[in-house]
Amino acid sequence: MMRSLFSGVAGLKTHQTKMDVIGNNIANVNTVGYKTAQVTFKDLLYQTTQSATGANDATGRAGINPKQIGLGVTNGTIYSNITAGGSTETTGNPFDIMINGDSFFIVTDGNNQFYTRAGAFTVDAKGTLAMTANGYPVMGYGTTTNTDGDVVIDTSKLSTLPINSSQNQTSPADATSKAYFTGILDSNSDALSTDNGQSINVQIFDNEGYSYTVQYKVLPVKDTNGNTVQGKFNLTISDILDSTGSTIFRDQDTANNETAAAYAAAKEEYFTPLLSSTDSAGTTITNATAANPLVITFENAHGTVSGPYISGSTDATDATKGAGFTLNINALANGTGPNNTNIDVTKLKNGAGIEAFTKEIETDISTIQNVDNKGTSTINGGNGGVSSTTGSGWRVGTLSAISIGVDGKITGTYTNGQTALLGQIATATFSNASGLQKEGDNLYSATQNSGDAKVNTVDSNGGSFTPGALEMSNVDLSSEFTSMITTQRGFQANSRIITVSDTLLEELINLKR
User: Distance (Å, rounded) from C-alpha 117 to C-alpha 122?
Assistant: First the structure.
């Protein structure tokens, strides 16, 4: 009878523990990333009143099973169902991230690493990605520049992710390196029938993001008798204006009694074709004279280039190689051009010293066509190439948005249209994730039975991220309520064992009366 009393007590305690776990599961039914816990029971010690015996061939007696009386129940395991994913809650917050797969986010308190499935993150005052619940920074990989000059993820070192830090707030300017001319040059157009020619404006940027407008002119080539040569045109530069519309060249010096004619003559030297290329001997040719301009020749509608400034294909039937030239403004800005002392350097790079005003601008003219267009020329120019913005140049930009991809890569978008790779969120996997120890605050820590964390990117483990969503708990209320019923009945039955045992003891005591 005393054994049954203690067995009943053990049953009560064990079922109470299970009810505690069920209560915690139900309490966390809406906790982000919570993993339901389950309890299993195991029987306790046994008192053996008779050991088992084997069969006896000599006597012909069969074997006897052991006689054992159990002494109750205890908890076998309390484990978390970590591998079962929770449902998806869409939040629209770009810093809320749900993991698809078996990985964990890695966070730190400054000394220790913890692991979590709760992807409710925010950016703190220093721009660091961190948990909203406790401020623990999220761990990941920074960036580095490879030998090709490309920004790539540096997986050699795990660190925090200061994605919105001061150094990521701006995108540096870049000078224009490519330009193009497209459209139709109709020899019968009014613009090409006069000495004023067809004007074309191309916007460029210097290496500090200041914008300039290069003003070109297309003039018909004339023979020695003054007659227009069909299909040939001279391309010259008439001016270069800064963002305020002022020429980068000097103004007329009336204080020193410079005549308008002398000023015009000096200015004309600047507006000779500022073009350069490399001849067959590898010598760079710069700053043509007015007598030797760039000549665009049209054969079978495709433009090719003749003269000392050839760059690209000269095959009249090959429009794919981009027949063109290289505009070298640096030759002028660095003092190698004519009359460089008259350049208003205060209008270049905001008055700073001139080291690299622009890049050499590769200009494509391969798509210009010399065809009949009813007397209308549609030729125009732009920066960046015909079908790509590569080489277009841009101003300094400020950070306008941050996005996180399905692979955890963090990208910044800037007001100048550029994007930059800012880092990548790292994840951890374990040989036995159920062996992790819960630390509260939706955190886990590694144990001997979980194994060491295997740190990598989420896609390397076959998983992915869902930005703008959170993983809800995987608590199944129907299962929890069912377990609650069976646990209640188990507790009730064990309480009856105690009361019935007490009644038996009472009967025993009454024997002495």
Answer: 15
